[in-house]
């Protein structure tokens, strides 16, 4: 939590983790991004003074039945075009009036979520950030309340969305979701490096295959390194041959299908590699976006997908 000490608040999904943050000493706001779904969850919201998102009438129903003296801070989530969670703009006004009438609701704020902020004004399908912003403020300006729109992408590229509260996510890891931009374009530094080492070396002849299914077949004699990291750890099984990887600081690529506990790499560009050579799968020197793009994913999925068996080291 040291890296977030200067934040004005934290936002997450899991109530158990929000409670843990309180027990660890966090006293500033904590927002539950999907709100509470059960009455017993709402009791934890009250007990630990959590802020809660309200995105449907059923969540307001629960707030109406809070005992006397209970106090909560609510965020109405407005569906301005994402069409995931949230109330349509015309419903949001009614929800605001309903919440403001409750003695148990201390404050009501408004928020929305963008569908295409990652496009950075490039081609995409669906509604634009500007259209969603206009829909949001057409309602929010009628109310006296704090608002929250901006995610990482719009914090970096669209100041019109930066309001009372912003919700940066992936940029806190020093990464972006832009298909044609990299974190370094915005002077972001990687906050997570996934590293391992070479645990085995094989020398193969032309015509030999590597890994399950023989996806990769050598066209020349090659040296293959085996890296202690696989899809059980969170490295994407979808990573194709050539997915970038660093061995002793030198860029090379994946060869063969990613296994449960290992990745095989081409050591031809790294003739001095040995068992114990350091491997960086993404992070310092290798943007996670490069790995994610090769694997048909986004950096956020890769970083969120690391398993609990991956040891973490603070540096």
Helix and strand succession?
EHEHEHEHEHEHEEEEEEEEHH
Overall geometry comes to elongated
Read across the widest sheet, the strand sequence of neighbours is: 1-2-3-4-5-6
Please give the radius of gyration in angstroms: 24 Å
Q: Largest sheet, described in full?
A: 6 strands, parallel
- Mean pLDDT score: 94
- What is the count of helical runs? 8
How much of the sequence is in beta strands? 15-25%
Question: What low-confidence regions span 5 or more consecutive residues with pLDDT below 50?
Answer: none
Number of strands: 14
N- to C-terminal separation?
A: 13 Å
Structural class: alpha/beta
What does this structure look like?
Helices cover 22% and strands 21% of the residues. The longest helix is centred in the N-terminal third of the chain and has 12 residues, at 89-100. It is built from eight helices and 14 strands. It has 315 residues and is of the alpha/beta class. The strands form three sheets. The protein has a six-stranded parallel beta sheet with strand order 1-2-3-4-5-6, covered by helices on one side. A six-stranded antiparallel beta sheet has the order 12-11-14-7-10-13. A two-stranded antiparallel sheet has the order 8-9.
């Amino acid at each position: 939590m040291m890296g977030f000490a200067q934040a004005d608040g934290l936002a997450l999904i899991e109530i158990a983790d929000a409670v843990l943050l309180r027990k660890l000493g966090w006293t500033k706001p904590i927002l539950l991004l999907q709100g509470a779904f059960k009455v017993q969850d709402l009791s934890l919201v009250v007990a630990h003074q959590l802020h809660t998102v309200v995105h449907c009438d059923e969540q307001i129903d629960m707030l109406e039945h809070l005992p006397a003296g209970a106090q909560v801070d609510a965020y109405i989530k407005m569906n301005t075009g994402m069409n995931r969670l949230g109330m349509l703009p015309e419903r949001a006004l009614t929800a605001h009036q309903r919440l403001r009438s409750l003695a148990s609701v201390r404050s009501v704020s408004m928020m929305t979520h963008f569908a295409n902020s990652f496009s950075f004004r490039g081609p995409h399908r669906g509604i634009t950030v500007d259209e969603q912003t206009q829909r949001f403020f057409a309602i929010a300006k009628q109310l006296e309340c704090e608002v929250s729109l901006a995610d990482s992408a719009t914090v970096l590229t669209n100041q019109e969305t930066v309001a009372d509260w912003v919700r940066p996510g992936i940029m806190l890891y020093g990464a972006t979701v832009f298909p044609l931009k990299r974190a370094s374009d915005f002077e972001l530094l990687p906050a997570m490096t996934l590293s391992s080492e070479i645990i085995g070396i094989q020398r193969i002849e032309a015509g030999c295959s590597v890994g399950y299914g023989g996806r990769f077949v050598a066209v020349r004699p090659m040296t293959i390194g085996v890296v202690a990291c696989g899809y059980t750890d969170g490295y994407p099984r979808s990573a194709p041959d050539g997915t970038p990887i660093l061995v002793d600081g030198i860029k090379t690529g994946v060869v063969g299908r990613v296994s449960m506990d290992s990745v095989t790499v081409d050591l031809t560009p790294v003739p001095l590699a040995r068992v114990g050579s350091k491997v960086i799968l993404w992070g310092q020197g290798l943007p996670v976006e490069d790995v994610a793009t090769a694997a048909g994913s986004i950096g956020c999925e890769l970083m969120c997908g690391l398993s609990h068996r991956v040891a973490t080291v603070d540096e």
